[in-house]
Amino acid sequence: MIPRRITVVTLGARDADSLAAFYRALGWREAISADGFFAFETGGIVFTIWPLDLLAGAAGLDPLPQGFRGSNLALNVDEGGQVDSTIEAARAAGARITREPTDEEWGGRSAYFTDPEENLWEVAWVPEDSEMARLVREARG
User: Which of 31, 99, 109, 131 has the smallest number of Cβ neighbours within 10 A?
Assistant: First the structure.
């Protein structure tokens, strides 16, 4: 059986130095910086950046073209208003906002942005009594 946990998420970057600078501008604490590899403490997983060609080569793959990759990363916040303040902080750091904060039909609030290399992020607040909120609490430990 494979353990049910994700401990590290790595983004393959065309310009790892610039992408790391973006995440530092978000206020994330850089824990490792070595030869184009960067690791950030995020309070749940280790978030890393590695040059795309090196990541693809290590996996035995060819790099994908730039653009939407069919997935997103998510930041869950504790209150609905934090969606708005998080989006404003992302905008100030240079993110492209793809959808402004919106009250959702499922009772929460969310918005989306991309980092400088078009990695898609969702910022979301889910109602405290929802199953998703329970899962997020469990994931945080």
Answer: 131
